[in-house]
Amino acid sequence: MGAEVVVEGLTKSFGSQNIWRDVTLTLPPGEVSAMLGPSGTGKSVFLKSMIGLLKPDSGKCVINGTDIVQCSERDMYEVRKLFGVLFQDGALFGSMNLYDNVAFPLREHTKKSESEIKRIVLEKLEMTGLSGAEGKLPGEISGGMRKRAGLARALVLDPEIILCDEPDSGLDPVRTAYLSQLLIDLNAQIDATILVVTHNINLARTLPDNLGMLFRKELIMFGPREVLLTSEEPVVEQFLNGKRLGPIGMSEEKDTAQMAAEQAMADAGHHHGGTEDVRGVVPQILPTPGLPERKGERRRKDRVMQILHTLPPAAQEGIIESLSEQDRQHYGVQRHASAGAQHGGGSSAPQASQGQLPADQVAQLPSHGWGTADQLRSTDEIPPGQGGAR
Ligand SMILES: Nc1ncnc2c1ncn2[C@@H]1O[C@H](COP(=O)(O)OP(=O)(O)O)[C@@H](O)[C@H]1O
Ligand SMILES: [Mg+2]
């Protein structure tokens, strides 16, 4: 099973420029998580901080018991071996063919024989759909193939954690969907913890188990996918729908005059530039038939059902809707009477969604609605004994 990553109060600045502060989240072991955020919010800086390429100012990032913010160079070297990273551009060596690119970490970091290396390289190329392309140079193949080659290279050291920086960048929507499928299939096969940072909405809606968003130097939420997908936070809503109307502007912040001008345009019938309303929980991608069931998905279900009562009503409804009838019986929950007609979005009476949870497990839901960072952060806490070994 992949490693758990526990981030607590992480803060990063470059000189006097603060990038983000007080980021707290847990990547549950073997689950797929995604972090959304407008360009320039520090998503790449976050990934680079996790692998020690950048040093955060304060806070913790604990992986298998090692806090990489404080640890020695030697410990960092060990922790780095747990990671496979897919950088934004694939970061392949242009003068090496795919075989040598993928073999590179093995030749650099292990003492494996060339025949052993060959076995591993061909296996990873097959997993990423690149069998037969091993002799090609990066410049001779498509962007989608370069991404997959970058992923194959990220896999050769059997990572417990896979980080992907905008795996969709430069890919068309169809190739992006194939790449999402590949990530889910990989997760089913190797049970690694996966974090994808992206601003691709389709990918964020269909790929991850957990979803978060960085905005204005803060992690505004992180937790089960259904929480963000049903959120009524203006910034989340704007982002998911790709509209001009809302708190996110062309530059980092939008002032009130700009907001008012855009509202006036909208009132006068100008289109907001985004999609129709895509809020709500859509089905998550499943592994390709024939592959094993995702262990992370089963663990996530148990974990999320334990904290179900702490989640906002619309998220609860989305979660219960997405369970099979058998699962609903197993967890003792029932569909809400009004659910099923449309996905998420609505706010139902929480009592109805809590099914037959024992009374002591049913928390009072806040009466003033959801959306503050603190409330949502609590959703990524893993009950004792559920989170695997640290
Ligand atoms: N090595 C660096 N030195 C100084 N500033 C940096 C460095 N790397 C990134 N930044 C700044 O950090 C901010 C966030 O960058 P980045 O993480 O690349 O955003 P994103 O990946 O979300 O688009 C940007 O303002 C960028 O200029
Ligand atoms: Mg980036």
From TrEMBL:
Domain of life assignment: Bacteria
Residue ranges occupied by any ABC transporter domain in the UniProt entry: 5-241
GO terms for MF: ATP binding; ATP hydrolysis activity
Matches recorded under SMART domains: AAA (SM00382)
Cited Pfam families: ABC_tran (PF00005)
Region Disordered, annotated ranges: 266-300, 327-390
InterPro entries the UniProt entry points to: AAA+_ATPase (IPR003593), ABC_transporter-like_ATP-bd (IPR003439), ABC_transporter-like_CS (IPR017871), P-loop_NTPase (IPR027417)
Keywords of the record: ATP-binding, Nucleotide-binding, Transport
Sequence ranges of Basic and acidic residues compositional bias: 268-279
Protein name: ABC-type transport system involved in resistance to organic solvents, ATPase component
Species of origin: Haloechinothrix halophila YIM 93223
